[in-house]
Design a protein that fits this description.
heterodimer; A: Rossmann fold; four-stranded antiparallel β-sheet; B: mainly alpha; MetI-like fold
Chain lengths: 244, 289
């Protein structure tokens, strides 16, 4: 197994506040990794750094062994190979669901509109949103919006999918449909790095769990170990608060 | 001299790689500066060769940028400009007050206020549509004719500017108030704040932020439109320049007056840019894209 995405010694500070303090993460092809940790532990920042949406202060990021943290690298080209889904969906309100999904295909990847729409409709069909393809996002429920946002991210066949707490803004009864979609993607062999608070889901779907605390990785390993019988006291403390 | 400052927290030493990257970024930005300088010099050379270094340029310079006429006309133009400033100063107060009144009248609820709302809405529609020059003719010349008295141009000018700009500014204020999300009103009312308290403590402070850029824009626009009061026969900067031009057959006085108006506008324009940049900064998360 070769690492698709590999981050080494990532440091990131906002002003005086050090958010990431030398983080190492690797992601193998077809691997699903869950990033857990308290709010403010640096999960979202790490994902944004990997996506080059946030400049890092130190360290290196490799995508297929290419150093993408090199300032000579075209960040747009790198981001076009990664998919990202945000906590609050971030669908474009002025575009229909279909146009949201096909935007990057058409504009960045230069796929002809017809072809892009065929593929988008097929994807939307699969998750039961084809009927809503011509609607604008504000006509959709939160769960539907987030599923549309996931489809938007995978429409360009990204090598890695970065999911940033994608169920945190959803009503509890809508969380299931979104997680079900992620589960399908994982079963289809997608490479996923997801920041999440859904421990049960992480246990089910993730191959590996990484626990981030105060900007450093405290513990990582298979979910059966990290979530069930963690070695580190800080991990135990965090998980205890969660299941309490 | 016994006090020593506490030792600063030891800064982490960046890796050699990171230092390399920083050096590269610095080299790149230095190169950008050099490219900018080189292209500016090249551009200046082209302008010099095609515009300034031509026989016609001297004529243009004589007609529009004659230094002697500029100096000679300056005192008269400046004196006129002071009248513009007075009208502007008065108008800021009257426009502010009447626009706020109009905006509040437009937001009044309840069927009793329908005629008030209707009149105010009609007023803003009419005066935003009516060209300022027609307002000047109608009121600036019409009013003295009607009352058969001589009204000083400073009063007439202020009146006309106020009539027109109140309509614009009132709409900006109203839009600002309505742009504050209704959930904010709900939250304030849920805390027990009354209608006026909600307006003053919660809605207006947020509305003000949204309103400031368009308000400043209207202010810049008003700064130069006070130059139109020359139509009323007032000897303002524009009229003074016109008089000197008529005497000398040279257009330099207009340029002098124009420069005065530009100098007046620049601080406001810069302030607006600075303010909108600051707003943007505060509302972003500090990301680069």
């Amino acid at each position: 197994m070769s690492a698709v995405l590999r981050a080494e010694g990532i440091w990131k500070a906002f002003g005086e506040r050090e958010v990431l303090r030398g983080v190492d993460v690797t992601l193998d092809r077809h691997e699903v990794v869950a990033l857990i940790g308290a709010s403010g532990s640096g999960k979202s920042t790490l994902l944004r750094c990997l996506n080059l949406l946030e400049p890092i202060d130190d360290g290196q990021i490799f995508l297929d062994d290419e150093d993408i943290s090199d300032p000579r690298v075209d960040a747009n080209r790198v981001r076009a190979r990664l998919g990202a889904v945000f906590q609050s969906y971030n669908l474009f309100p002025h575009l229909s669901v279909l146009d949201n999904v096909t935007l990057a295909s058409r504009i960045v990847h230069r796929v002809p509109r017809r072809q892009a729409e065929e593929r988008a409709l097929a994807l939307l069909e699969r998750i039961g949103l084809a009927d809503l393809a011509r609607e604008h996002p504000d006509r959709l429920s939160g769960g539907q919006q987030q599923r549309a946002a996931i489809v938007r991210a995978i429409a360009t066949d990204p090598e890695v999918l970065l999911l940033d707490e994608i169920t945190s803004a959803l009503d509890p009864e809508l969380v299931g449909e979104v997680l079900e979609l992620v589960r399908q993607l994982a079963a289809d062999g997608a490479t996923i790095l997801m920041a999440t608070h859904e421990m049960a889901f992480a246990r089910d779907v993730a191959h590996r769990v990484v626990f981030l605390d105060a900007g450093t990785i405290v513990e990582e390993g298979p979910p059966s170990v990290v979530l069930a019988s963690p070695r580190e006291p800080r991990t135990r403390e965090f998980l205890a608060r969660f299941t309490a | 001299m016994t006090d020593t400052p506490p030792p600063a927290r030891a800064a982490r030493q960046p890796s050699a790689l990171e230092l390399d990257r920083r050096a590269f970024r610095q080299r790149r930005s230095r190169r950008s500066v050099l490219v900018a300088i080189a292209s500016s010099i090249a551009f200046a050379a082209v302008v010099w060769a095609t515009v300034i270094n031509t026989p016609q340029w001297a004529v243009v310079q004589q007609t529009f940028f004659n230094p002697e006429i500029a100096v000679a006309s300056f005192p008269r133009v400046w004196e006129g400009f002071l009248l513009n400033l007075q009208v502007l100063g008065l108008s800021v107060v009257t426009v502010g007050a009447s626009a706020l009144l109009i905006a509040v009248l437009r937001t009044l609820r309840g069927p009793v206020f329908f005629p008030v709302r209707f009149i105010v809405a009609a007023y803003t529609d009419i005066f935003r549509g009516l060209p300022f020059i027609i307002v000047l003719f109608l009121f600036g010349f019409g009013l003295p004719t009607l009352t058969n008295t001589r009204i000083p141009p400073i009063v007439l000018g202020t009146l006309c500017v106020t009539l027109t700009y109140s309509a614009y500014v009132a709409e900006v204020i109203r839009a600002g108030i309505e742009a504050v999300h209704p959930s904010q009103r709900l939250a304030a009312r849920a805390l027990g704040l009354g209608y006026v308290q909600t307006l003053r403590r919660v809605v207006l402070p947020q509305a003000l932020r949204k309103m400031t850029p368009p308000l400043m824009n209207d202010f810049v626009s008003m700064q130069k439109d006070v130059g139109l009061i020359s139509i009323l026969g007032a000897v303002d900067a524009v009229r003074a320049a016109q008089i000197v031009t008529a005497q000398t057959y040279n257009f330099t006085p207009y340029v002098v007056a124009g420069i005065l108006f530009i100098l007046l506008a620049i601080p406001t324009i810069r302030l607006t840019d600075w303010y909108t940049a600051r707003l943007r900064e505060r509302e972003q998360m500090g990301s680069i894209v």
